[in-house]
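#structure-requests
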Amino acid sequence: VQLQASGGGLAQAGGSLRLSCAASRTIASFNYMAWHRQAPGKQRELVATIFSGGSLTYADSVKGRFIISRDNAKNTVYLQMNSLKPEDTAVYYCNAWNTGGNYWGQGTLVTVSS
C-alpha cells in the first residue's frame, strides 16, 4: 500500500491550504485514515481521523478550523486547513490502518508565516 501526500506549502496566518492523500488501493479497505503532524523539535501528533463508518475526530488544537474528508471514488483523503496559525507549521503525514498493517505516506511540509 502506498500513500501519496501532497498540497503542502507556504501560507500566511489566517489563510487556507488543502492537503491530499492518495492511496494505491481502495480506501474503503481501511478501518480509518488519519492525518498526523510533526513540528520541529516536537513529537508527532494526531490531527484528524476519519473512520470507515464516517465518524470524525479532531485534535483540540484544530477543531473548528480543519476538516477531514474523503472521496472514495478517487481513493483520496483530504485535510482542509482554514484559519491557519504559525503553530500549524509542521510536516503533515497521512496514515491508514487495517488488519493488514499500519501504513504511512511521506510527509508534506506546511509552513505558516505570521
